[in-house]
Fold these 3 entries.
Entry 1:
Amino acid sequence: MSTQVELVDISSPSLPTSDTDRPPIERAKIQESFRRAQFRWSHVDWIVLIWMLVMHVGAIAAAFFVEWKSVIAAIALHWLTCSVGVCLAYHRCLSHDSFRLAGPVRFFVTLCGVLSGQGSPLMWAATHRVHHSRSDRDGDPHSPREGFWWSHLLWLFVRRTPAERQRLYHVFAPDLVQDRMLQFFERTYSFWLVSFGGLLFWLGGWSLLLWGGCLRIVVGYHTTWLINSASHVWGYRNYETSDGSRNLWWAGLLAYGEGWHNNHHAWPREACYGHRWWELDLTWQTIRILKLVGLATQVVQKSPPASLPHR
């Protein structure tokens, strides 16, 4: 049994409330840039492709440089960059405005997201908002209806010009594009990744670089990408939404609560994604702690389980 809800358009109250509120020509150009037809040799982002290859080769090489301190560091950094950085900062705070953070905390958690290697905060948030506005429809950046591997990985290799990136930011992230902190990370994104890699090598040699850098980043990539691919294909649905989002328990565990994807698409601004007692959301626990100590405010809690039938 599932509950019928209206699929809500993206996140921030400062954003347009529907697709039709956005400039039609600008919207059409953005959607065109995300279509699979753009995936051709003449339009490949070679920088992204080479980076991905290097990270995956490094992840494989980590098997030959095993040290316990590096393994422990990789686990800790995975939580810090993926749960705190991507799930908490990039996704729930920036993309959906589910809560507000004190200035220094906001800087730190956003920096953690930068060190995940998943793109600049502006690019990540704006692209994710396109996904919510066009979920599993024409113009969705990574719908599995265009193929599982397209939604999981291949969509990342489409090159976008600086003008296309700026258009994306101004149309889908107008509340973020003028943020000085986010503009700072937009300019210095590569610097932070390279510098952190150098720091890891200086502290622990090849073992720490490969485990705490390459392998940690690659595992973070695939756990995040599973939400785009697997969580729109397999799993169960608490809510009837107009897309194919599903709750996938093992993705929920691997991605720190993000795998309760049907819940999220039904209630995109809700800060907690676990709507049944067994739907563990580890990122939400961190948000609760930040709220308890006064570092997270205006936390969106609409209690959707009140309308959710028991099984």
Note: Confidence is low (pLDDT under 50) at residues 4-20.
Entry 2:
Amino acid sequence: MKPVNDTFLRALKREHTDYTPLWLMRQAGRYLPEYNATRARLGSFMALAQCPEAACEVTLQPVDRFGLDAAILFSDILTVPDAMGLGLSFVAGEGPVFAKPVQDEEAVNALYVPDPSEKLKYVTDAVRIIRRELNNRVPLIGFSGSPFTLACYMVEGGSSKDFSTIKKMMYARPDLLHRILDVNARAVTAYLNAQIEAGAQAVQIFDTWGGALADGCFEQFSLKYMRQIIEGLTREADGEKVPVIVFTKGGANWLEDMAACGCDCVGVDWTVNLTKARLRTKDAVALQGNMDPMVLFAGEEAIRREARKVIDAYGDVGNGGHVFNLGHGISQHTDPDAVRILVDEVHTYSRSKHAAR
């Protein structure tokens, strides 16, 4: 069944829309006081993420507050390696940490594809609850990290500034890294398909660290495995197409390659000009993005001005194909009122552009 507001899904399919739909990466998060209250009640990030009812609550908070055009499942990209038994925890001031980093042949050989119906059941339960509570208002986006991005955390043991450990493995023992990436790709495929079966109506692959790769390495160690995932995904559910979005932060150099990987939409960061991106991808896919998240700290006039610039850069909307988003996740220090202003401007200004065609 189509959502009452299916503008987001139609834009991904490059169909005509009455306005440009909008959602924000990390839209359910620490910038919202209601999110902080829910997290405090649960006691920790992981306790919140692993409680389906609470995950539903925070997923719906920004949709209810701002009138966004899509909800995105509240979860974390590291749920998959955590389900592999690597021992994920979040350390104050450090971020995610794995108790068992994957840095040698023995650790690589121990990796396996977790059954989503067992160790990741809390995620699919959350998807089902969110779909029910959304009551078909807007579509629900499922997601996962890309195989390479997951591998960065798995090999480094947590966050990294230079990715020295995984890059050493990539150049010295590429066979080991390829084995990790293959397991990750199969795990992500099963995980996203489980989300789709549970009710996700579109999915996004977050290739957060693909842009850290050298040219030539991106195709071999990141895009190859995202393509493998896309080829294995369920692309239709309940008689409707399930669109796939690929987002590589810092991936401007490979736009054409990403557009040809089988996805329906390429997300771009704020370094990309949307006019040029459309020319480079030849309108073969929808585009998602791409305002700099820092604009939201610059006041109402700047927010409205920069939002219009993004919409104008995309240009002719005759065939749809643009989903407005930030070029990366929203900062935890953002004033929620800035988001309200952004949503108002995108919806109002884009509606006039769509009506004028």
Note: The mean pLDDT is 95.
Entry 3:
Amino acid sequence: MTPYPEKKASMKLEHLAISCGGTGGHFYPGLAVAREFKEQGGDVLLVIGGKNAPEQSKIADSYQIPNIQVKASAPGMRPLSAMRFFFNFFAGRSAAMEGFRKQGTQALLCMGSFASLPPAFAAKKLHIPIFLHDGNARLGKANKFLSRYARALALSFPSPDAEKCLCPSIFTGMPLRSELKNTTCSKAEALAKINEKYGTQFDASHPVLLAFGGSLGAASLNKAVLTLLSLPGAEKLQFIHLAGKGKMEELKASYDAFEGKKLLLESSGEMLYLYSAADLVICRAGGSTVAESACFGKYTVLVPYPYAAEDHQFDNASYLAQGGGASILRDDEFLAEKLGKIVTSFLSSPEIFLENGKKNLLKAKPEASGEIIAMMENLLFAAKGASGQGDH
């Protein structure tokens, strides 16, 4: 990884475009950078592509972040898929170019995925500097391809294949929603908020287990977590379990016989309180999830999604596990058994897990959004500053 030059105080990036379409793993980090840039007084434009663009555009609107939707689709080998890709590529590039001209874009930040291709080539045609961000430890295909045109790539985690990047790579961390950077909420305060909202009766003196599977692969993780209900001493546990889309009814039925305290939700937009309340977290190992666990200093049992491209969730999980703040379990036929052993150990010595969870704080990068913005300004204006030229 290459360190970026020292920032010249008089230099300022004022007009930034961010391509962040595709899945939530690409969109939400881009939105986090956009919100940070706007708070710094900058003019930001989100360029959103892919099938989720209409919904993501509404989310951006709710934060009063200017945005445009551009056509984008994944490349495919079949003739129809290839035709669709090229049609959407040229249409998306044209729309992005129009947006960049109107904004006076100084730089484009691409958050990865095929949705970044049309905006990136629009920026290239207009000679706008391109920067990249990857939300996983292992580099995505789009970022590896676009790195030949980029000034730098910002890494969420130290990368095991950074040598495949054709531009400088800089470890900045994963941008998180500003709501999740306030990690000073105590367990008691968080449980009081949860009890007030959901009518639960959680007790801060008893351990809380938070489990969720994310947007993909919740079924097998849910099944493994449900086996914990029959563990000796499980009645001491208080469960907060996010079922995942479409899995709520099945989860409710499985918890019916459990007499302990529980909160079952399909999903939640209030992860600040859920993380703050938890003593132990069980989840997948997407980039945002790993970064959030680090910021909250919670011991985490990470179960990488087994069908993730190039097993990249395992590399994400390794970032925390190597520091002693997490365990990695494979999603196989022994998952429930291995998870049961960890939770049994937690029940017998919770203080050890709480202490080890704090090791994750050493891995946290809560100011990643600001670091990415500083990286771009440093690389954009270092040459001018070195040559004695004035402000941009």
Note: The domain at 179-363 is CATH 3.40.50.2000 (Rossmann fold).
